[in-house]
Every structure is written in C-alpha cells, then in structure tokens.
Amino acid sequence: MTQSAESLFEQGIEQYKAGAPASDLIPVFKEVCDRAPKSSAALTCLAWLYLLEEKPNSALKAAQKAVKITPQDPQGRINLALAMLDSGKKGVRDHIDEALHVMMLSSELKEEVKQNLEEGLSRKPDWKSLQRVQKWLFES
C-alpha cells in the first residue's frame, strides 16, 4: 500500500521541524504535490523549500499555484512575494498588502507567519528579501 499524500505531508513537516535540509525535503513535497495537486499547503511548503535553496523561479511557480488555490493564505502570499523579490519580478506590494489584511483579521495567523519568518532567517540568516518582507509586515 502506498503512503497517502496527507501522511507524507505530515512526515515532511516533522522532518523539517527536526532540521532536515530543504534540499532533502524538496522531493518529498514534490511527491505530495503530485499526489495532491490542489493542496495549497503542500505547494506553499514546496515554494518555501525552493526559496531556502535559492531557486526563486521554481518557488515562484509553486507559490503562484498555492495562491491561486487559496488566495487568503498569508504565508502563500508571502512566499509569492519572496519569490518575486528573489527573481526580480514586479507586483510584490499587492501580495504584502493582502497578507497584512488577512493577518489583521487573525492574530493566530499573524503569530504563525512571524514564527515562520524568524525560522526562515535562522536557516538562511543573510536572506535580504525575507528581512525586507519581515520589516514590511511587522514594523509598519
């Protein structure tokens, strides 16, 4: 019996939390996305992993799909904004504004995003785009 996309997703999240390198987890989340192509959570994670691995064009594609499926997810919007910044694309502000709007409505989501960004900087301390986005979201 093959593993379900959901259990594979959960395993990938646990491995990430345990400190597994993004490069090891990209194939796991690609597999989850292949099995569950409408999973915006899996696409959001895949985009994040690509960003950590400095693959902004791959991150852009995954983040665009995630936002198309779930436009109200602030982390998906933030990942899309980061991918756009890292690949030199325009239109970042709209996604930042939308993420800010949703975060104003949910302190739980705001805290989750804050933790995700801090965790991203712990894995990739010199990530200039993430530092900019963090400033826009939490110092405005």
Structure, described:
By secondary structure, the chain is mainly alpha-helical. The chain has one domain: Serine Threonine Protein Phosphatase 5, Tetratricopeptide repeat, CATH 1.25.40.10. 78% of the residues lie in helices and 0% in strands. It has helices at residues 5-17, 22-35, 40-52, 56-69, 74-86, 92-105, 107-123, 128-138. The radius of gyration is 14 Å and the shape is globular. 40% of the residues are buried.
Would you spell out the secondary-structure blueprint of this structure?
Elements: H1 5-17, H2 22-35, H3 40-52, H4 56-69, H5 74-86, H6 92-105, H7 107-123, H8 128-138
Helix pairs in contact: 1-2, 2-3, 3-4, 3-5, 4-5, 5-6, 6-7, 7-8
Number of domains: 1
CATH superfamily: Tetratricopeptide repeat domain
Alpha-beta content class:
mainly alpha
Q: How do the helices and strands follow one another from N- to C-terminus?
A: HHHHHHHH
Number of helices: 8
Mean pLDDT: 95
Identify the CATH class.
Mainly Alpha
CATH topology grouping: Serine Threonine Protein Phosphatase 5, Tetratricopeptide repeat
Rough shape?
Answer: globular
Rg result: 14 Å
Number of strands: 0
Low-confidence parts: none
Strand content: under 5%
Distance N to C terminus: 50 Å
Going by CATH, the architecture would be: Alpha Horseshoe
Largest sheet: none
What percent of residues adopt helix (DSSP H or I)?
over 70%
